[in-house]
Amino acid sequence: MAQERDFNEAFPQSLELTDDDSVLQIVWDDGHTSRLRLDALRAACSCAVCQGHHPSQSLNLRPEQFPDIRIADIAPVGRYAYHIVWSDGHDTGIYTLKMLRETQNSA
Ligand SMILES: [Zn+2]
Asked: Cα-flanking dihedrals φ and ψ of residue 9, to 5°?
């Protein structure tokens, strides 16, 4: 599992919903703060349903399709990812720490 964490050794210290629950704010233990818009995060879902097993199967989701999206539940998956259940019922999305850290959709 080492490869999932080789981008750096940062780990989320806290997760918080801000801006009327439309932004996920993550404070990392190296002092970095990420602010991730939920509509963009939902559109970036990397699961097989959203992205398909081949690029031609991708749903090509866009943030504009999720104006009122909210997080219904979020839970850690081991020490490398978070499982997010969305308010639209979508519950197969796994967001790795690497993806959350590198996502630049800052709100
Ligand atoms: Zn998905």
From this structure: -105, 15
CA–centroid distance, 52 to ligand 1, in Å, is 9
Measure 89 CA to ligand 1 centroid, in angstroms: 10
pTM (two decimals) = 0.85
The token duo for 45 is: 């879902």
Q: How far apart are CA 5 and CA 50, in angstroms?
A: 24
Whole-number pLDDT of residue 4: 52
Residues bordering ligand 1, an ion, CB closer than 5 Å: 45, 47, 49-50, 93
Q: How many CA atoms lie within 13 A of 39 on its CB side?
A: 11
